[in-house]
Structures are given as structure tokens and as C-alpha cells.
Design brief:
Layout lengths: L5 H4 L7 H12 L5 E2 L11 H11 L14 H15 L9 E4 L1 H13 L5 E5 L4 H9 L3 E5 L5 H13 L6 E5 L11 H14 L2 E5 L25 E6 L12 E5 L1 H14 L5 H12 L3 H23 L12 E5 L8 H13 L1 E2 L1 E2 L10 E5 L4 H16 L1 H15 L1
Parallel strand pairs: 1-10, 3-4, 3-5, 5-6, 6-7
Antiparallel strand pairs: 2-8, 7-8, 9-12, 11-12
Amino acid sequence: MEQEFHRIKRLPPYVFAEVNSMKARARAAGEDIIDFGMGNPDSPTPQHIVDKLVETVQDPRTHRYSNSRGIPGLRKALSGYYQRRFNVSIDPESEAIVTLGSKEGLANLASAITSPGDVLLVPNPSYPIHQFGFIIAGGAVRNIPVTPGPNFMAALERAVIHSVPKPTALVLNYPNNPTAEIADLDFYAQVVDFCRHHGIWVLSDIAYSEIYFDIDPPPSILQVPGARDIAVEFTSMSKTYSMPGWRIGFAAGNKHLISALARIKSYLDYGAFTPIQVAATAALNGPQDCVDDIRRLYKERRDVLVEGLTSAGWALPSPAATMFAWAPIPPAFQHLGSVEYSKLLLREARVAVSPGIGFGEHGDGHVRFGLIENLHRTRQAIRSVKAFLNNYDKVLEEADGRKNTKG
């Protein structure tokens, strides 16, 4: 029996699928693809964290079910991190919870707080789970701008006036994936003041708060007085400690939201494997020079990529934070859109990127580079892109011909 399921019908086709399929076919044919597509850290997890995992896994008592809220030691370590980094005191018992990565935490909290038809405010473009976590839960998403500032606040005003029912929650993500936008405390203070006044929850995602370059460390919304009345914040070990496959993240902040997330999780999981949580505790409590090293690695890759592509004729802004570069499609190719341009770049330059439309329709004028290739491979990609751009008249004529044939 074939049946279309309601929640699945609300999810559009995976826009990266076509590019990923092309990439797989090219590799199967023996082609060397330089892949900047997925934000998947390539450097190893620092050795002292791995050593703690190995040590802990030797104890068979750690092989039993864990705690869906996270082991107490890890929640205390998160509290210590917030105190050191943001001068914010977090109660590890009532204001903190361990998640299976920030993605799982965001999706489960969306499920906990969303009723069918609720209106949620999400920036566009954005990391897909920010929008689709609520859509899966039956909510209706209203898009707002990504860039902090007057236009953002004006969009909040319009949303409150024109949305029926009134918006339930707002998602923030700074440093932003995919755009690398950053926000300051003054902006957070405006958002907190507005959302407290209108009774709107705030879900802040700071997964990239430790990956920053040439700027002051990005702030936490919880630094704003009164933020904990309405806000919860998600973060992750994935990028900060190069631990993406370990699937460890956190939520901290408003007790009511943390309690709601804990209740949902109590039905869905028993928490991450205890040795992973113990190793994550060692990461937060241990030496932080490894984080400095990871930050320097991404900065060096950023500089080589941005300078190289700019000199090759593709000007793109230098991101102040995150492990991504958000690259405007060169003017000659903008009419193709991000999917066709990504396919063209893959076919002609053997370079894979993420189409911007995968992060929302307002991202269609861009592609995203992940800083996940080493310097040698990055320079190789720059040479290929330069050759591609220098031959763009012929390439564009052929690309337009393919597009017209399909149409």
C-alpha cells in the first residue's frame, strides 16, 4: 500500500540531492572532486578527549543506559563554560540539558512547544532544522531577515501585527549558518525587550560561537538581563572541539523550556553513551588550546580561500566567524540560480559547494563553501575555479543550452 504521510508531504525534496548525486557519479568514475559542500570538520578530535573516551569505555558500568538529561558532571561543565565565557550563571539542574547534538535539541524543543497552526519566526536563509523542526511539528513558519538591525526589528513588528495567531517563538542563529552574519549584545537586548513584551519565546543557536576571527568573541543572548524569562540557547561540541560524529550538544536558559525539552527527551532517548559524555566533560573542563588551534586552522583556510577566489575574479566577503564562506554567485551566472551554478562548478571545475537555495529561497543568489579542505586542496580548487571563470563565455553558452533543452 502506498500512502503519502502528512508530515512527509510538508518536507520539500532535498535540494542537495542532485548535486550530491552528481558528486557521487563523478567520484565513481575516478574524478577528483574537491568538496566544500558539507560543514563536516575534517581535523581529528583532540587527543586528550579521545583518551578520556577510551579510558571510560573500559569500565563496563558505563555501558548501561545513561540519563536523557545528561550526566550531572557534564551539565556542571556546561555551567562552568557559561561562567567563564559569558559571565552567566547557569543552574545545571534546572537550566541545562545535554542533547544529541544541537540539531536534535532544536527539533525536539520545536516538537515540545508547537501546536498545529502555530506561527514561528525563522530567518531566511537559515540552517534547515531551524525551519523544518517546526514544520515537522505542524507549525507555520514566517520568514524574517537574517541581518541584525532595523530591518530585522521592523520584520518582527510586522509579524506581530499581521500574523494570526500571534507568533509563538523566534529563532536566532549568530554567528549564522550559512551567511556568517554576527550579532552584538545591543541587538540581543532589543530582541529580548521586544519578545518579552509580546510573549514570544526565543531559541538562540550559537553552535559557531567559538569559531571567530579578527573580532571579539561573539556574545550569548543569556548575557542580556531578563533573557532567561523567554530564551533558551543551543550550542554544540561539533565545531568547537572537532567532534561532529560524537553527537553532543546542549541547551541552556529558561527553566520552562528546558523542562519541556527534558520531558520530550525522556520519551525518546536515554541520552548519549556515557563514555562520550565523560569525554565531553573532559573537553569543557580541560585545556582549551585545542580550541585556539581549531580556530587558527579555519582562519588560515578562510584567508586562502577568500583571497584566492577574489584574485581569480570571484569576489566574496571574508566571514568574521563560522567555518563557512557565503559566496554571491558571479553576476554572469546569477540567472542560473544556485543549484544549476553548483552543478556547473562541479562539472567544469570539479569543485563541490552547497546551493544557497538549500537554506531557503532567499539564499538562491549564493553558494556556501565549507572550510573543510586543507590548504593544498583549497589552492588546487582556486586554480580550477580561475580556469573555469576565464572560460566562462563558452561554459555559460553550454550551460544555457542545457537549461533550455530541459525547459
